[in-house]
């Protein structure tokens, strides 16, 4: 008897897009991807963590160093890139952000300001930090729904 094909869920599909987007990051330690979708399950933007457009990435450190040698001074986070990559005046009110890493407090502020109503994250490796605690408080105060992704992880094979 032939087995019926069961398509992946919307959560699996959109987190898969976020995971694939993360593959564009040149960060040697943490590749993060994001995907924003509207209420019709239409992808409205994607992003990954990387240097700002036009910056020669070979002239800036990708290390966690100190002072001007710290990547944290230069890298745009995946969530911020997804927000900034919006085209044609699309509004983000009532959209869902799928992201592979729990948003930092700076990205949380941008998420709130743009009207994104839900955040679905894959992992929260900085859960105990002040930055992540601040994000959680901001989301709570702004009534942003936040949930951990619980679907299957989709293997995307690139050749």
What order do the helices and strands come in, and which of them pair?
Blueprint (H helix, E strand, L loop, with lengths): L9 H13 L10 E5 L5 E6 L29 H7 L11 E6 L3 H10 L3 E6 L6 H12 L3 E4 L11
Parallel strand pairs: 3-4, 4-5
Antiparallel strand pairs: 1-2, 1-3
Helix pairs in contact: 3-4
Give the gist of this structure.
The protein is of the alpha/beta class and 159 residues long. The chain is built from four helices and five strands, in the order H-E-E-H-E-H-E-H-E. It is globular and about 65 Å long.
Describe what this molecule looks like in 3D.
The protein is an alpha/beta fold. 26% of the residues lie in helices and 17% in strands. The chain is built from 4 helices and 5 strands, in the order H-E-E-H-E-H-E-H-E. It has helices at 10-22, 78-84, 105-114, 130-141, and strands at residues 33-37, 43-48, 96-101, 118-123, 145-148. It has a 5-stranded mixed β-sheet with strand order 2-1-3-4-5, sandwiched between helices. Helix 3 (105-114) runs parallel beside helix 4. The protein starts with 9 loop residues before the first helix and ends in an 11-residue tail after the last strand. The mean pLDDT is 92.
């Amino acid at each position: 008897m032939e087995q019926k094909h069961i398509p992946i869920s919307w959560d699996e599909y959109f987190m898969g897009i976020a995971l694939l987007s993360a593959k564009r990051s040149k960060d040697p330690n943490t590749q993060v991807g994001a995907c924003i979708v509207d209420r019709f399950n239409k992808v409205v933007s994607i992003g990954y963590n990387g240097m700002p457009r036009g910056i020669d990435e070979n002239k800036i450190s990708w290390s966690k160093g100190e002072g001007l040698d710290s990547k944290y001074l230069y890298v745009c986070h995946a969530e911020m890139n997804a927000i900034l990559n919006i085209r044609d005046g699309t509004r983000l009110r009532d959209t869902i952000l799928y992201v592979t890493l729990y948003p930092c407090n700076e990205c949380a502020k941008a998420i709130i300001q743009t009207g994104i109503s839900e955040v679905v994250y894959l992992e929260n490796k900085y859960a105990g930090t002040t930055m992540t605690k601040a994000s959680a408080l901001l989301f709570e105060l702004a009534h942003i729904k936040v949930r951990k992704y619980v679907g299957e992880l989709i293997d995307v094979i690139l050749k």
